[in-house]
Amino acid sequence: MNRWTRFNIVSITLGFAFLYLPILLLVVFSFNESKLVTVWGGFSTRWYVSLMQNEALLDAAWVTIRVALISATAATVLGTLAALTLVRHTKFRGRILFSGMIYAPLVMPDVITGLSLLLLFVAVDMDRGFWTITLAHTTLTMCFVAVVVQSRLLSFDQSIEEAALDLGATPVRTFFEITLPVIAPAVLSGWMLAFTLSLDDLVIASFTSGPGATTLPMKIYSQVRLGVTPEINAVCTILIGIVTIGVVCASIVTKRREVQRQRDEYAAAAVG
Question: Which residue range forms the structural domain that includes residue 190?
């Protein structure tokens, strides 16, 4: 039986403090009245009001959200198809190469990925902007979705699909009515992961962006080099809130689906 020693408690406390204390300070100082981000001048929401009037940051935020939504959706579709191919079709020519290409972005440094995509867009004479960032983020996040969905498919009971096919259902109908509802929590988790990675990306977006397509991380980085302002704290706090709410909602939905699936299995076993 594992016991909580004083060393373990202190180690975990220091670890969580190192990770989350800076974030907590950022959130607290976003409500600071003072213009100095390190001096507390009283509680105020003036910087959130000022943020709503900052068109440059708002435009960058809108670009970031659109890129994240489109790239996460595309990455989820492609990543799910890639996971199905790796799990269901284990014997085809080029499988090793295909799996290597799927997993490569997981271990590839962002600088190399961004530079290679930049060279690709230059070679095909594609103007860099919104769509090049979207394509780059889709390439980056697709592998994460494939890994998450593949882990769920490995434990999937294929006899359910076989039963549906024996009863006359087409493969497409079987996928949408049998397979997809079962792996939906993994697909949703993959989408959330892709969305978060896209929101957070700075390096790849810097290589593949162009005029009129500045993402929020790029805008924040360019302003931080001149000094951190309370508006930066405010916009970062909003991002933290969005990601936190999304993760909580996804966890609740996933938990409810899992509970419902277990109830359906128990009911089917009882009837059988």
Answer: 54-271
